Amino acid sequence: MTALIVASLITLAGPAKDNPVRVTVVIVLATENTTQVDPRLKDLAKEVQKRDPKLTGFKLVATESKSIPVGEAAIVPLTDQQVLKVQVDRHKDENGRITLTLHPPAMDVVSYACVCDKFFPIVTPYRTKAGEQLIIAVMAKPCTGMK
Q1: Which helix H or strand E contains 124, and what residues bound it?
Q2: Where are the domains of the chain?
Q3: Band of the pLDDT at 10, cuts 50, 70, 90?
């Protein structure tokens, strides 16, 4: 009975503010030299092409996930020895948004509040030696368990 009451109180209190946030980064390379689009990137490709219709080919390079405590940062390896620094500034606010600060390659710092389970794409100016443009998509959500 006592365990049931404690479990109920924990559920009502919600997640602790110091729980880490799970940040997922999708690494994509886009090109003007092909029309092949990875089926998993179909929606991302449509959105990017609204701003840059010359980018016609999109391939998924990797997906990285990290648990980052609030107030701390982590480095995510990208491609060509480029990295993305991700800092979790604030846990979920009253509107359900998590605040992140990103340091993408060849760009200024980007700070924003994101909705859980929604990707935020960033088309960086970085190009590989083959001329492919680096795109990163970032999603954050409160961690429900540690791995």
Answers
A1: strand 120-127
A2: 17-142
A3: very low
Token digits of residue 28: 């994509």
Q: How confident is the model at residue 141 (pLDDT cuts 50, 70, 90)?
A: confident
Q: Measured at the alpha carbon of residue 68, what is the angle toward residues 62 and 69, in degrees to the nearest 5?
A: 175
- Tokens representing 65? 């996930």
Tell me the CA distances in angstroms from 45 to 39, 55, 56, 60, one per residue in order. 10, 8, 8, 11
Backbone angles phi, psi at 12, to 5 degrees: -70, -35
One-character DSSP codes across 49-94:
HHH-TT--EEEEEEEEEEEE-TT-EEEEE-STT-EEEEEEEE---T
Q: Per the structure block, which two tokens stand in for 54?
A: 């010359």
- pTM exceeds 0.70 for this model: yes
Amino acid at 103: H
Q: Are strands 73-77 and 57-68 parallel, antiparallel or unpaired?
A: unpaired
**DSSP assigned state of 117:** T
- Distances in Å between the Cα of 72 and the Cα atoms of 21, 30, 69, 100 are 10, 30, 6, 10
